[in-house]
Structure formats: C-alpha cells, structure tokens
From TrEMBL:
The keyword Methyltransferase does not apply. SUPFAM superfamilies: PLP-binding barrel. This is Alanine/ornithine racemase family PLP-dependent enzyme. Residues 16-230 form the Alanine racemase N-terminal domain. Its cofactor is pyridoxal 5'-phosphate. Signal peptide: none annotated.
C-alpha cells in the first residue's frame, strides 16, 4: 500500500500566472503590431516551459525563441508546432538544430556549413537570421564583414538566409536608438540590393527596444523583436520601468518562515569572514524582529528578490535569507511572498528545490 505523505503546500514555490503572461503577450503583440513589428516570445528564462510558451502564443506572438536546444526539444515533445527560433547556435548541436528548429541565429560560417550538411542529410530547408554586431559586443558579425558572410552563405545547399538582426543592451549595455536601428535598416537595404535577395525579417533587438519604439517616428525596416522580460515581467530593460497596462508580477516566489525572533541588529563577538569570504559591516538599529526563510543562495540570486510590504532583506547564506520584519509579527510556518527581477526569475526557475506551480490554464 502506498503511504500518503501530506504536503500542505509546496515550499518554496514559484507561482506562475498564465493569464497574466497571456495578457502581456497580447498587449505587446498589439502595441508592436501597430508599428509593423512581429514578436518572438523568448522562453529561456522559464526553461522552455510549454504551458508558458502556449500562453505567449495565445497572446499573439508569431514565433517562440529560446537559447537552449534542450528547452526547444521539450516544447516540441509537448506538441508546440509554432515556428521556433534558436537564439544561440552551437556547432556541435547542428544536427539537433536541424531536427527541432525552424530558424536559427548565426554568426559563424563553419556553423552554418555544418547546419547545411545536416539539412541536406535530413532533406529539409533550414532558415537563418544573420546577427550583426552593432556595438554591444556580444554576438554579431561586424558590418564591414557582412557582405562577405552573406556571399558565402546564400548559396549553401538547404540553407536560406531570411533576415538579419542585432542584439543590444546585453553585454556592453549599448542602448537601442535611432542611430543603430537606422544603421541596421540601411544594412538590410544594401544587402538586398547587392545580392538580389529579400530579407523578410529584420530583428532589431529585445526588451530594451521599447523606449526606442515609443520615441521613433518611423521604425524603418525593423519588423521584429525578440521579447522575454517584457512579456514575463512587464517591463522594458533600459530603465527597468513597468510598461503601462502590463502585469509585473506574473511570477511570485513564496517561501516559508522557519525562524522569527527579536534579536539585536549587531552581531556580537569578534568579526571574521562570513561564509562567502566577506567581512560584513552592520548598522545598529537596536532590537528588531528578524525572520529567516527556508531559501538561500543555492536556490536563488538573492538580489533578484523583491520583498513586498515591510520586509527588508538583511543578508543571506547558502540555505537562509535573513530579513528584518519591521517588527511585524511573522509566525513560524507562515509564507512570505516576493516579486522577482529577471535574475531572480532565471535562478528560481533553474533551482530543483523550488516547485513550479502554474496558475490558470490554456484553453
Ligand atoms: C535572451 C535573448 C533575448 C530576450 O531578451 P529580453 O531582454 O528578455 O527581452 C533576445 N535576443 C537574444 C539573442 C537573446 O539571447
């Protein structure tokens, strides 16, 4: 006989509101759609969760994009048949890319050749978007090397160059603006003319492109963006401001209070290094009610936790986060709730100790 273990609620857990994600995807699809810009819903922060991808699709995104082939395989197995885009292409994964992905972003000739080889073997046509370096210094081909790259790729068997794109505000923190977006448009025009091809997708960036799109009189040739954070957390990423009309707490992290006591705010005894090799300093605020939650650095990027109400994070170790409860009475066994920023979301979704609970359904 099975022994039943009663679990009141899974803790810690992340609660995911599908209806809020669907709403955000819909508002953004309409907003950008009015400017002629289609969307790729980026699923990587959710590890390619198929339910979340479906909510994005129902909201109107035209493509799903992810950086990891494993996440894409998971979505394919779950029956997602929307066009899927791979954001980061590795040479060694070329065959899996051909089998699972419709479109991949590329910057290396060797890799595109390998994709071509496997596309030929599997008798399919693989589409690529060529990424251009516009100053942020993550992935991209320098504009001066672009014609040569296109020349060498357009005639590769079973490969079709369907567009160009760029990525900003990720590594170098370079802002998408009229200047670099105009440059990308110009490059598209020039390549089409030189090689007599049509580039159907000009993918101008990510969640950092919101401000540019709001301010721009005309978006030029830019007709696509790849959005993760804007859809999931409802904000743009240049100033991390909430986008009007979007939900900013579709993801909530809930953890359990395991200690709640009044204690002095200054440690006593001789101070040495803490568990992470720092010598901490403290402010004396007298006796305070402090709580500890069953969550730590092994689970989450603690700086990515945004406490609600009066709680204030004082510090953390591998398995504990210590908070000042502002003298509110937080009982042992009770739950505390946090909003998450992107780093918090990414780490929480990746932690095997945090349960993922989807609220709502896809109908
Ligand atoms: C992660 C990623 C995105 C999505 O970025 P957000 O800031 O979450 O919108 C877009 N493009 C590429 C290439 C990415 O790797």
């Amino acid at each position: 006989m099975l022994r039943q273990i009663e679990i009141k609620a899974l803790l810690p857990r992340i609660e995911i509101s599908l209806s809020q994600i669907r709403h955000n995807a819909q508002m953004l699809s309409e907003h950008y759609g009015r400017k002629g810009i289609s969307l790729m819903g980026v699923s990587k922060a959710t590890l390619g969760d198929p339910e979340i991808a479906k909510a994005m699709i129902q909201g109107g995104v035209k493509f799903i994009a992810d950086s990891r082939i494993e996440n894409i395989q998971k979505m394919r197995i779950a029956g997602i048949s929307t066009q899927i885009v791979l954001l980061r292409t590795a040479f060694s994964q070329a065959e899996a890319v051909i089998k699972n992905v419709d479109i991949s972003l590329n910057t290396e000739l060797e890799t595109v050749r390998e994709l071509s080889n496997f596309a030929k073997i599997h008798n399919t046509l693989h589409q690529i978007i060529v990424m251009v370096e516009m100053g942020d210094l993550r992935e991209g081909i320098l504009p001066c090397d672009l014609p040569q790259f296109i020349k060498k790729t357009i005639d590769l068997p079973n490969i079709k160059v369907i567009g160009i794109g760029c990525n900003l505000a990720c590594y170098g923190g370079v802002k998408p603006d009229n200047h670099n977006m105009y440059q990308l448009s110009e490059l598209a025009d020039a390549l089409e003319k030189e090689f007599r091809i049509h580039l159907e997708i000009i993918s101008g960036g990510n969640s950092a492109n919101y401000e540019w799109s709001e301010a721009a009189q005309a978006v030029g040739r830019i007709n696509n963006l790849r959005l993760g954070e804007s859809i999931l957390l409802g904000c743009e990423t240049v100033n991390r401001k909430a986008i009007p009309g979007l939900y900013t707490s579709a993801f909530k992290l809930i953890a359990e209070v395991i200690e709640s006591k009044e204690k002095p705010s200054l440690p006593f005894g001789e101070i040495c290094q803490n568990a992470f090799g720092n010598v901490p300093t403290f402010l004396d605020r007298g006796i305070r009610r402090r709580i500890i939650i069953a969550l730590g650095r092994q689970d989450i990027l603690v700086s990515g936790l945004k406490p609600n109400k009066a709680l204030e994070i004082l510090g953390s170790s591998s398995d504990h986060v210590v908070l000042d409860s502002n003298n509110y009475d937080c009982q042992v066994g009770s739950e505390v709730e946090f909003n998450l920023d992107y780093g918090g979301l990414l780490s929480a979704m990746t932690s095997p100790f945090i349960a993922k609970q989807v609220i709502g359904n896809n109908h």
